[in-house]
Amino acid sequence: MTKDDLCYLPATEMSKAIRNKSLSPVEIAEALLDRIEGVNPKVNAYCTMLPEKTMEEARAAEQAVMKGEELGLLHGIPYSVKDLVYTKGIRTMRGSKMFEDYVPDVDAIATERMRNAGGVFLGKTTTPELGWKGVTDSPVTGITRNPWNLERTPGGSSGGASAQVAAGLGPLAIGTDGGGSIRIPSGFAGIYGHKPSSGRVPVYPASVFGTLSHVGPMTRTVADGALMLAALAGPDHRDRFSLEGAPADYVGELNKGIKGLRVAWSPTLGYAKVAPEVAEIAAKAAKVFETLGATVEEKDPGFPDPTDCFLVHWKSACAGLLGHLLPKWEDKMDPGLVEATKEGMEFSAADYVKAQLHRQEHWAMVDRFFQDYDLLLTPTLAVLPFEVGLLQPKGNSDEPGEWASWTPFSYPFNLAPNPAATVPAGFSSDGLPVGLQIVGRRFDDLGVLQASAAFEEAQPWADKRPQL
What distance separates the 2 farthest-apart alpha carbons in the chain? Predict the structure, then answer.
């Protein structure tokens, strides 16, 4: 096995090799740190690295194996943490000059659980300022690039995480998703991304975006996503919205298949405008589900376009978090975030309550739809990865809420609490990834994982690597 092969090894295979002592956590960490040193300057996936800490944890993991100690679910496997997610004693800049030197004194629950499962910390991944947009560049960390084409964006706001995983710079990445920020970059970078059901993975410290925001896995394979979700999921008293029940056996039940399921395929959700090549690739991917034993019907869910509702929630959150900071920091912030914040400050309390009521109506319609279908398939995004340095694809306005027009399939399932994942569906004629979104009933993260795994088995993607 070459060093590059080792870097692209799935976490599930790393785990088996570590446990049978054919591979050391130290070997894995050394190979990844070497590759990161050579490749990260090209893609800018990591913004904070602590190689001494990484090696210290890897050596401790190796010693535990040799001593025959009880091993955690992720023992010896390297992982990253998005730079919005707190890491105790390690700076968490959030892509912002305002927090460039901020060092939390507490871990996020997700960070804590990855460590407690035996994972080896690799570093923090880049994000746009406070995760506000669907591409990844920030005043602090600059531009992050797509490993498949360095002149294209890897999406956002977990764009550093998607670039990391796609470029073979670590198998596991913690992402966050408040309007698509796991699924958008996973779709653009050709990896697997899973936004769990609301409350499945506890969020602490709480996000200003409330129950719109989720934490979840970003990986190369579905099995790695299932393994990581098994480590992350489960109740926690610090998140008042966390689900009380124990999560399903994501790893053990992963390969049960989807025979007999009722699947809806919606190419537009009834209102989206999708690039022809994206639509064609996603439609072909949806047909694969018929060969897996499911019944597939083209059907729109029937809910109205919820963009305005979502933008009231989103811009109001920006205003509440940042409005009082503008006098001091405006000239050092991302101009688009400043504009979104100012627009949010114009909303009234009545506007926000109306948006809350609209959200409840939206969720009720989504819930009714899933009484007739087990899964909903859509394209992950409406466009192909576009040029770095742009807020929107060429031809779109630079209005800060305009990103909703090219991400129309993601945020409806932040307004609703359903689990949703993206799987690589294929590549465009110029070699850019296209994703297929798989949405399940609320609580049915296992069903989404099983459908993702069945599709992956029928149309595998993990052997494909970008040329860097």
Answer: 62
The pLDDT score that the predictor gives to residue 86 is: 98
Please, what is the average pLDDT of the chain? Answer: 97
What tens digit of pLDDT does each residue of 254-282 get? 999 999 999 999 999 999 999 999 999 99
Per-residue H/E/C for the chain = CCHHHHHCCCHHHHHHHHHCCCCCHHHHHHHHHHHHHHHHHHHCCEEEECHHHHHHHHHHHHHHHHCCCCCCCCCCCEEEEECCCCECCECCCCCCHHHCCCCCCCCCHHHHHHHHCCCEEEEEECCCHHHCCCCCEECCCEECCECCECCECCCCCCHHHHHHHHCCCCCEEEEEECCCCCHHHHHHHCCEEEECCCCCCCCCCCCCCHHHCEEEEEECCHHHHHHHHHHHCCCCCCCCCCCCCCCCCCCCCCCCCCCCCEEEECCCCCCCCCCHHHHHHHHHHHHHHHHCCCEEEECCCCCCCCHHHHHHHHHHHHHHHHHHHHHHHHHHCCHHHHHHHHHHHCCCHHHHHHHHHHHHHHHHHHHHHCCCCCEEEEECCCCCCCECCCCCCCCCCCCHHHHHHCCCCCCHHHHCCCCEEEEEEEECCCCCEEEEEEEECCCCHHHHHHHHHHHHHHCCCCCCCCCC
Under 8 Å between Cβ of 434 and 407: no
pLDDT band at 121 (very low <50, low <70, confident <90, very high): very high
In the chain, domain spans: 3-458
Query: What is the tens place of the pLDDT at every residue in 235-252?
Result: 999 999 999 999 999 999
Active site residues: 82, 157, 181
Q: Per residue in 359-389, pLDDT tens? A: 999 999 999 999 999 999 999 999 999 999 9
pLDDT over 70 for what percent of the chain?
Answer: 100
Give the containing element (helix H, strand E) for 452.
helix 445-458
CATH superfamily, domain 3-458, is Amidase signature (AS) domain (3.90.1300.10)
Please give the pLDDT value at position 401. Answer: 72
> Model confidence at 396, in pLDDT bands (50, 70, 90)?
confident
Residue 76 has pLDDT above 90, yes or no: yes
What angle is formed at CA 79 by the lines to CA 75 and CA 85, rounded to 5 degrees?
125
